Amino acid sequence: MPILALIHEGLTVQTIPIDKEQLRIGRSSDADIFLDDKMVSSSHAVVEIKADPKQKGKAACYIEDLKSTNHTFVNGEKISRHKLAHEDRIRIGKHLFKFIDESKITGEKTTKLHKSWIPGVYYTKD
Questions:
Q1: Least buried of 20, 30, 110, 121, by fewest C-beta within 10 Å?
Q2: What is the CB neighbour count within 10 angstroms for residue 87?
Q3: 40-75 pLDDT, tens digit each
């Protein structure tokens, strides 16, 4: 299942599964993803899951700007409609989302955390 991860200062603060055909993003209280930000329009953008015409049996995710005042950006580019790819970065107002396609996630090796001789200080060797 695809996910939108809300990123703040490089950390994921919330994950939102894309579990419906459409998720509306905006400042309106009835939006699926409510953003309390004056730079966000009441009905700012929509994320949709559609059947991918190029790959039978697979779905693709799209984001569409709903003629918002301050636009929607994917990877720094202003978009009107965009097919999302794994790790695309979406900016709406001051909010940054990362699109995660769980089918593209590979099991990376876990980094080992080492304790230093200084109390409370840890480090990695990578």
A1: 110
A2: 13
A3: 999 999 999 987 777 776 788 999 999 999 999 999
Give the distance, in angstroms, between the CA of residue 81 and the centroid of all CA atoms in the same chain: 15
CA distance linking residue 97 with residue 7, whole number of Å: 6
Q: What is the mean pLDDT of residues 81-92?
A: 95
- How many residues would you count in the chain? 126
Query: 49 forms bridges with which residues in the sheet?
Result: 61
What is the DSSP secondary structure assignment for residue 104, as one 8-state letter?
A: G
Record the tokens describing residue 14, joined without a space: 């919330």
Amino acid in the structure at residue 99: F
At 117, list the tokens.
């001789």
Does this model's pTM top 0.85? My answer is: no
- Identity (one letter) of the amino acid at 101? D
Distance CA 3, CA 84 (A): 11
| Per-residue tokens: 78 | 């202003």
Q: Is the pLDDT of residue 105 over 90?
A: no
